[in-house]
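Can't paste images in this forum, so I'm doing it all in text. The chain is below; anyone willing to post the predicted C-alpha cells underneath?
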Amino acid sequence: MTERDAFFTPSKRYVVIKYGGHLMEGGDTAFSKQIVSLYKQDILPIIVHGGGPEITQMLTRLDIPSEFIDGLRKTTEESLEIIQMVLCGIINKRLANSLTLEGASAVGISGTDASLIVAERMSHELGFVGRPVDVNTAVLETILKGNVIPVIAPISADLVGQSYNINADAVAAFIAGALQISLFILTDVAGVRDANGEIRDSLNEFLAQKFYDERIIKDGMYPKVQACLSALKLGAKEAFILDGRVPKNLHRFLIDNDHYIGTKISLD
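Text version of the structure:
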C-alpha cells in the first residue's frame, strides 16, 4: 500500500472534476445538484473551475482586449488583475455557496492559498499565463479528510510571488496526476469529433496528435485533450472529456456504470 492509498478513505471515491466555460452560463444550480448527488453517495470531488465567458464579458466592459493562442487567453498585467477578480472573487465563492446550499460542505480557494499550486511562466508570448509545477497535496488532504469539497480557482503564483492565470484544464490535470485519481473535464460539446464529425468514444495520444496536426482538434478542445494526456502521464487513474450539458452524465458513469456521452482519453 502506498502513502497515497493510506490517506484515502476506503469507503469513498475521489475524483477531479473541471467545470467552466459556457456550462456556467445557465447558472450553477444544475451542476451543484449533480455534484451533491455524488457527494451523498460517497464520491468526493475536487472541483477546478474556469470562467472564460465571464472573464471576457468583464474585460469587454472595461475595454480591455482579449487574444487567444491555441485556446489559451493571453494575459497582460492589466487583464491579470481583472481575471483574478472574476475567478477568485466572484465565481469561486458563488460556486462554493451553490454547493453548500444544495447540501454539501464546500470551501472556495485558489492556487495561491497555502501555496496550493506553484506555477511558472508558460511563455513570454502568452504573458502572465502559467503552468503548474507543484501541488501541495497536504492542503487538499486536510480539506478532504473533513468531508469537504475543495472548489479551486486556477490562479496561482511562482516562488517569488508573481501571480499567473493558469488554464483550469491544466490545473485539474496536475491535481489528478498528483493524487493518482480520475479526471473528468466537463465541456459544452458531446466530446472529441473525428474528421467525419463523429464523436469518438476513445482517443489515444497518437490520434490526438494526428487530429491536431490536421486541425480537427483546435481552439478550446486542444488544451482539454492535452490536459487529459498530461494527467495520465503524471499518474492519473483515467481521464475523460464529458458532455456537461447532459443531466446526470457524471452520475451515469460513476454510479450507474451506464453509457456516458463523451470521450475517454488514453496514452495508447
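The mean pLDDT is 93. Residues 82 and 181 are 32 Å apart (CA to CA).
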